[in-house]
Design a protein that fits this description.
Helix content: 40-55%
Radius of gyration: 35 Å
Largest sheet: 5 strands, antiparallel
Strand content: 15-25%
Number of strands: 11
Number of helices: 14
Shape: extended
Order of helices and strands: EEHHEEEHEEEHEHHEHHHHHHHEH
Distance between the termini: 58 Å
Low-confidence stretches: none
Length: 450
């Protein structure tokens, strides 16, 4: 077997693989003998079928399978042993000529290989990068207190509508004279939040309303160009309200007002357990729980800034664009014809960062172990629990959830990526000179939005 690799412009590679009869013959003959032992051909005893008949029936297919196996195995072995930084997969070259696989060879296969550009990405203490330290101020703690109070709140009956109260009542379709329409739409237990009504004139009709009041309004004017909202209110199919323009009466049976929980020992225990007794302790616990999340946000912003800094430092990388477009088209056969042109520029940008990050990972010696994957899985699960107001989740529960998540193959890749980002960020914070800037959460969010 002979393999030759050319890469004249350093990014467009050409791989030529020549397979001789001697490369495949022994394996083909062994497979044919195995076929002969198992062949069941009428008129011949098992194992006694003439080899010529076996070769005629199976020879070419077996040879093609073996040639393809050898081709793939040796091609990737050559790429690995010669440290060729291939992008995507090898593609059949336009220089390929048809091969007569019925014959004995030699067979020559030519592949186009997209090769990563050569460059150097490195960060040292001579590189200065901003790091935004988000402060935990009273305003931020107040917002968290309000959030916990809302999560622990409940609905109570009110005697007059205000703010975001919800009205419950019965709806009846009216005729042109304002009377209940015979055979019209009737809905019991309908729910309306007047603060969400789009039509201002209709919204005003609910101001100051009380249980027992009957409000006459037009649902289509209340929710203009939103038949889905009207249909949901009236509990009918969307088509039933398409051409409807009737007024409805709405007799209020109940006003539900949401009342946040009191900021007291009961709330402290609900959020953090029995150890927290005073509001000062509660606020300190909130501050302590916020700090890791804010640090994570700061680290995320830092890695974004590292990316921007390195892209500018490395400069525009040269890629084999025509070949990469072929690779991209080949791996997205189910997409439309214009998919590649629409997404190629963004794909190249992500590829550039991927290659830069690979070098930074190598420079810092970042390696991912099972413990790292479990740590990021637990972090993700802890964040999910926090969304439901559950801050103090026992470690054994987090461990069990993490282990279950890591059993799912589709989750592992994203956890690996996340673990790399976490360890790389920590390593780079030690490698570069940090320009630490203290900011409020509002200032930080404004930067992220900008």
């Amino acid at each position: 077997m002979n393999i030759q690799f050319e890469c004249a412009d350093k990014v467009n590679g050409l791989m030529t693989v020549t397979i001789e009869k001697a490369d495949y013959e022994e394996k083909v003959q062994k497979t044919l003998k195995d076929y002969r032992k198992k062949a069941n051909v009428p008129g011949f005893r098992p194992g006694m079928v003439p080899m010529g008949l076996i070769k005629k029936q199976y020879g070419t297919a077996i040879k093609v399978d073996e040639v393809n196996r050898l081709l793939g195995e040796k091609l990737y072995e050559y790429i690995r042993e010669n440290n060729i930084q291939m992008l995507g997969e090898p593609l059949p070259s336009e220089k390929q000529v048809p091969q007569d696989l019925e014959g004995d060879g030699p067979f020559t296969f030519v592949f186009d290989i997209a090769v990563a550009p050569e460059f150097k990405a490195e960060l040292t203490d001579k590189d200065k990068i901003d790091y935004y330290d988000i402060t935990v101020d009273d305003k931020l703690i107040d917002q968290q207190v309000q959030m916990y109070a809302s999560q622990a709140g409940e609905f109570v009956e009110a005697q007059e509508w205000s703010g975001n109260d919800t009205l419950k009542g019965d709806l009846r379709q009216l005729d042109a004279d304002g009377n209940t329409l015979e055979g019209g739409i009737t809905t019991e237990g309908g729910m309306i939040m007047p603060s969400y009504i789009k039509g201002e004139e209709e919204k005003k009709k609910f101001e100051g309303c009380k249980p027992g009041d009957i409000i006459t309004f037009n649902p289509k004017k209340a929710y203009p160009e939103n038949d889905a909202e009207v249909a949901a209110l009236l509990k009918v199919e969307k088509d039933a309200v398409k051409d409807m323009d009737s007024d409805f009466s709405f007799q209020i049976t109940e006003i539900r007002h949401f009342e946040p929980a009191k900021v007291d020992e009961k709330l402290f225990e609900r959020v953090f357990g029995e150890d927290v007794k005073t509001e000062a302790e509660f606020r300190q616990k909130i501050a302590d729980s916020i700090k890791p999340q804010l640090a994570g946000n700061s680290d995320y912003k830092f890695l974004l800034d590292v990316r921007k800094y390195m892209e500018e430092k490395v400069g525009k990388l040269e890629f084999p664009e025509a070949l990469l477009k072929r690779v991209m088209k080949n791996t997205n056969k189910d997409k439309g014809e214009d998919y590649v042109e629409q997404n190629f520029e963004g794909s190249i940008k992500e590829l550039s960062w991927h290659l830069i990050k690979e070098q930074l990972v190598a420079q810092t010696g970042v390696k991912i172990e099972d413990a790292d994957l479990k740590a990021v899985a637990k972090q993700a699960i802890r964040a999910q629990f926090a969304q439901y107001g559950m801050q103090e989740v026992p470690e054994d529960i987090l461990d069990n959830y993490a282990e279950e998540q890591l059993k799912k193959r589709e989750n592992v890749e994203q956890f690996v990526d996340r673990a790399i980002d976490v360890k790389l960020t920590n390593a780079l914070k030690q490698a570069v000179k940090l320009n630490v800037k203290k900011v409020t959460i509002e200032e930080f969010n404004k930067m992220m939005q900008g």
